Batch of 2 targets.
Target 1
Amino acid sequence: MTSILIFLSLCLHVVTLSIIYKLFKQVQSLQQDNAREVTELLEQSLQDIKQENRELEHTLAATGNDTKPAGEKESSKQPETEGETKNPYTPETDSVTDETALSLEAKILQLHDKGFSIEEIARQHNCGHTEAELIIKMNQKAYNNT
């Protein structure tokens, strides 16, 4: 009688371990699919950003705006005289105010929740259409996976 119980116990353990192994493989497969989807989303967004940049460069070239990159801007500072030394850190303790501001991501998600279109959101926050769309998609992806 005990040998039958031991045999049944062994069979149940084998079945349980095989089920656990199959579930583990399914979870791994889902994680790989999720990583692949995120990678594809980011690659598509990168392509969209590149396209927007090309369009912006074309528009700027067509309008004749001569813009310099941030590193090439001319400095408007006057050179310091020898007798003058400026302290770069001068705290102003009399006028300290504590302000809080929402991040760009929070602002975009807030407007999206209110029903604004991606174009309207990008226009209001002076950011790229693709940037706003990517923030929304990544938030939806994170929200759906929890």
Target 2
Amino acid sequence: MLQLVLYIGGLALVGQAILYAIVGNKRETNMFYQLFVVLNKPWTSIAKLISPKMVAERHIPVVAFCVVSVLYIAVTLAKIEHCVSIGMVGCR
């Protein structure tokens, strides 16, 4: 379940980045961009907490994506290790 939450967060951050590039300066009035901002609020808040103060505000979503990616990889590796240790019974 945690893997799914991280996957959705990562895709939402990618979607926000794509709209940031496509929409440009009109992103503040774009409904879908604002939806991504709301979806990514927990991840960007975590990124603000763990990043140094000298990181620019516009780079916080990139830091959030890195955090989500590292956590996703860690959860995936833990899941693989667990499945191997129990002999693949009940793992998909």
